[in-house]
Design a protein that fits this description.
By secondary structure, the protein is an all-alpha fold. 69% of the residues lie in helices and 0% in strands. The protein folds into two domains: 132 residues, no CATH class; 127 residues, no CATH class.
Length: 262
């Protein structure tokens, strides 16, 4: 089991970072800043847990390196992508629904909630760090799955950034590279690497932490990922409707052939 005292300290540290991020967002009138802090919540919690338990060993080192690579890359990418831009339209919609007083409400509706979710999803990380067990084939499988997911996420983000930077892409839909096989290669990669983290935890016997990748996958599919992003995208970008018809929403697969009506 987890060291409950260390886990509680990690939760407090994450919530403290969430409050700090909230204060910055209020000053800047931009609740979408939470996206830049999301991955850092995980890193903050894991670092606190490691310091509190004095965890050592090959698995703990590998997990912390993988987590740091994912968290720092994602935080830097989102910061670069959104630098100088307005509040994301998804958070503007949340703001409209919760006025008046959204500045205070966002403390628990946005930042506190995401801090709690990050702490829950972090369970495989904490288990893999804090539980000692000899390295075994599950560790190798977990590492391989994590690398696959990370590659999908990084490549998908890079292809999208390159597409958006091209003036000729205005009004078009990205349907090349990984985006030919899934409408959300970055979300697929995110889910996959968290299943990799789970296998690293399962290698120590912490099978119960399966709640983490299940929750992450559900969120990416039904809550904050695919469902939210595509809620009205076909209205803002009409060409996206045909893209939806031929391209898998999540799991990569060859695109469907377009049916030509007689």
């Amino acid at each position: 089991m987890l060291d409950l005292r260390a886990a509680l300290l990690a939760l407090v540290a994450v919530l403290a970072l969430a409050v700090l991020a909230w204060a910055v967002s209020v000053a800047r009138h931009d609740a979408s800043l939470v996206d830049r802090f999301w991955s850092l919540f995980f890193l903050c919690g894991a670092a606190t847990y490691t310091a509190a338990t004095g965890a050592r060993g090959a698995r703990a080192t590998v997990v912390l390196v993988l987590l740091a690579a994912w968290a720092l890359r994602l935080a830097l990418y989102i910061t670069w992508r959104n630098w100088g831009g307005p509040e994301d339209h998804r958070y503007r919609a949340i703001r409209r629904r919760n006025e008046p007083g959204f500045a205070w409400k966002s403390l628990y509706l946005v930042f506190g909630l995401q801090g709690l979710l990050a702490s829950l999803i972090s369970l495989p990380i904490l288990a893999a760090i804090g539980r000692s067990a000899p390295l075994n084939p599950l560790d190798g499988a977990g590492l391989a799955l994590w690398l696959l997911g990370f590659a999908f996420e990084v490549a998908g983000d890079a292809q999208l950034a390159h597409f958006r930077a091209d003036p000729q892409s205005r009004g078009r839909v990205l349907d090349t590279g990984l985006w030919r096989y899934t409408r959300h290669p970055n979300y697929f990669g995110e889910a996959t690497l968290w299943w990799g983290f789970y296998l690293l935890a399962a290698a120590t016997g912490a099978y119960w932490t399966v709640v983490s990748p299940l929750l992450m996958t559900y969120m990416l599919l039904r809550v904050s990922g695919v469902a939210l992003l595509e809620q009205d995208i076909h209205e803002r970008r009409p060409a996206y409707r045909a893209y939806i018809a031929r391209t898998s929403p999540f799991l990569p697969r060859p695109p469907r052939r377009e049916v030509i009506q007689p």
